[in-house]
Specification:
Length: 257
């Protein structure tokens, strides 16, 4: 994938105005975080064909076959409070859900906090990391991994992961997928700026099926079960447990059958 190929598809003003492409990086999030300590343009996108130390949520590794998928990070300077940073992961998954629908008619859904699933299998994960300088929010790095053309997954993932190729039966142009995702990110970033974080949260809720359902959240060895009510203004998940509301800030969600 080259910058020219991406530019041929891309119609954005801010997100992607600077594209920095690498054959190999440890992690695009790590690179973007180091960039954000210097001068940078908002909307800069760091992309790697292969990550040697891709980072996932809760200290996990993000595994992605070299040259088949999308692994990239977008540098943003949102005017939000420290408490609202979690919203940026939710924001990324909304953009991916809409892009997958537009590109291939795929019915994807958001899974709290930052995954995108198709028929229960993960096609995308997002990891937002904030950079503070002198206690001030300097930037938020929104890292996104999308399975595009990978058709074989390591044994521990093969029942849990899918890709656009698996779902559609065709090889997809990665630069076109990237361009569509960046375009939706730009639209929702405008919504975040103009209408505020609540508006983004309402969009997220429209793209998930967990609201109103009985779910379990596994967080550091503890399982909490309740009804998913809504998303709080900081991106936390509000559960109703025996008539009381409890906010969950991290963990892995599963539906109670
Ligand atoms: C998760 O599902 O746990 C989040 C995965 C986020 C992976 C992406 S790939 C691009 C960016 N760089 C990283 O090291 N991680 C994110």
């Amino acid at each position: 994938m080259t910058e020219d190929e991406i530019r041929r598809h891309l119609r954005t003003n801010t997100i992607g105005r600077r594209l920095v492409l690498f054959d190999e990086l440890d992690s695009t999030n790590l690179y973007a975080k180091s960039m954000s300590r210097k001068e940078f343009d908002e909307g800069t996108v760091i992309l790697a064909d292969r990550q040697t130390a891709g980072r996932g949520r809760l200290g996990r590794e993000w595994k992605s076959e070299a040259g088949k998928n999308l692994t990239f990070s977008v540098l943003l300077k949102p005017r939000i409070s420290r408490q609202q940073i979690g919203i940026l992961s939710l924001y990324a998954s909304i953009a991916v859900v809409d892009a997958l629908r537009q590109i291939a008619g795929l019915a994807a859904e958001c899974k709290w906090p930052n995954d995108v699933l198709i028929k229960g299998k993960k096609i995308c994960g997002a990891l937002s990391e904030a950079v503070f300088m002198q206690d001030e929010l300097r930037s938020v790095v929104v890292g996104i991994g999308i399975n595009v053309n990978q058709i074989e997954f390591p044994s521990e993932l093969c029942n849990a992961a899918t890709s656009i190729h698996i779902e559609t039966g065709s090889v997809i142009d990665r630069s076109m997928v990237l361009a569509r995702v960046l375009e939706y990110m730009e639209s929702f970033y405008t919504i975040l700026r103009n209408d505020g974080p609540q508006a983004v949260l309402r969009h997220w809720e429209k793209r998930t099926t967990i609201i109103g359902k009985q779910i379990s959240v596994l967080d550091r060895g503890t399982i909490i079960t309740g009804t998913a009510k809504t998303i709080a203004s900081d991106g936390g998940l509000i559960l109703e447990i025996q008539g009381r509301e409890k906010k969950i800030l991290s963990g892995d969600v599963s539906l109670v059958q």
